Amino acid sequence: MPEWKEVLDEASQYAVRYLDGLPDRRVGSSATLADLRATLDVPLPAHPQPAREVIADLALAADPGVVASSSGRFFGFVVGGATPAALAADWLTSVWDQNAGLYVLGPAAAVVEEVAGRWLAELLGLPPTVSAGFVTGAQMANFTGLTIALHEVLRRAGWEVASAGLWGAPRVRVLAGRGRHGTIDRALRFLGAGVDAIVEVDMDDQGRMRPDALASALAVDDGPAIVCAQLGNVNSGAMDPVGEICDLAHARGAWVHVDGAFGLWAAASPRLRPLVDGVARADSWTTDAHKWLNVPYDSGLVFCAHPAAHRAAMGARAGYLVHGADGERDALDYGPEHSRRARGFAVYAAIRALGREGIAEMIERCCAHATRFAERLAASGKAEILGEVVLNQVLVRFPGDDDRNRAVIERVQQEGTCWMSGTTWQGRAAMRISVSNWSTTEEDVDRSVDAILRCL
């Protein structure tokens, strides 16, 4: 019999020790590349080894190279942690090992994603009839959303991408703000549309798309067009005026795609919801559950207001497949993957455990912590806060040139109390603080501010 209990007990004991130690653990990795290669790069085993010993050795060797991104003091990029219910559901996902591509391979996985998709639409203020796809992250969510958009705007222009491809197709313009995320450009590269399809629209000093600039850009050409709005500038957290963008774009017959990797979650908060006013009028939306919903990686989401267009762009049919009967949802019709992990279980558990009120409170708490960061650093007289703090993002500039600012960021990362990433904002180096973790406390913020000031 397989040694299930022994090997799972070993993994569980390490996991609990790791999680219990997060409040005091160094946040950044403590191992060098040479250290990790010395312990992990062993010769290919010639013979089987006891599974429990393999797991024990792996945990011991890998631990120094693990970044504590689940820590309440990790503020790099926009990375959430994992709530207890979401993590436990993710363990069950591995135990059940369902291939969630087809209903017949995982009926429970299919129904859970159906329900979670409906809950998400309600939380995020989207139309109740939207279709939903569970993908790896915002990159593949944007790829999926833009695939649907490209197929549909060309279909309306009399061109079928699925059969004819893009060679010879009418030119499609993609209007996107100068402050857009790089996943938009990368998705267009993957699609074969190319980054030259992008028409850059001016933004204001906070990183928001300017509606007047969009109106001017739309007026240049009445051909097929996709407008990419952004909810949550990755540096400043700024939110595009999505309602105005939808009105302008739809008046010209353009498709509106909303990149809401983290900012779309503002819709789940009664206090922050005005920031996304009009979002329901868009055509497609993306966000990440592994950011502000705090489920384990990987968990991206794409929604579409036109389910038939969604299935037409993504769906697959083959004689060897057993496709779902009426009412049975095949996930491969809503995303680019065929075989994939049953990501919906963790999302379902996270939403059910937190509830509407818990999700709103978590998002508002993260934003309050971001404001606390800004206020304490500004009050020190040793830091400048760049721009408004509208969500969970804080941009910080220290006295001195770019080299000194980058050196301070590196020193903070090496010191270990907390971890923030660097960026370039309006031509100047800056520290970027992102508060996205459900477990972050005011004490975590204060400890981190004190560490930053020490590192100056």
UniProtKB/TrEMBL annotation:
InterPro entries assigned to the protein according to its UniProt record, in alphabetical order = Aromatic_deC, PyrdxlP-dep_de-COase, PyrdxlP-dep_Trfase, PyrdxlP-dep_Trfase_major, PyrdxlP-dep_Trfase_small
Domain of life of the native organism: Bacteria
- Which cofactors are reported in the record for this sequence? pyridoxal 5'-phosphate
Question: Record's SUPFAM superfamilies?
Answer: PLP-dependent transferases
Task: Cite the entry's keywords alphabetically.
Answer: Decarboxylase, Lyase, Pyridoxal phosphate
Q: Does the keyword Acyltransferase apply?
A: no
Annotated PANTHER family: GROUP II PYRIDOXAL-5-PHOSPHATE DECARBOXYLASE (PTHR11999), MIP05841P (PTHR11999:SF70)
Q: Which family does it belong to?
A: Belongs to the group II decarboxylase family.
**Protein's recorded name:** Pyridoxal phosphate-dependent decarboxylase family protein
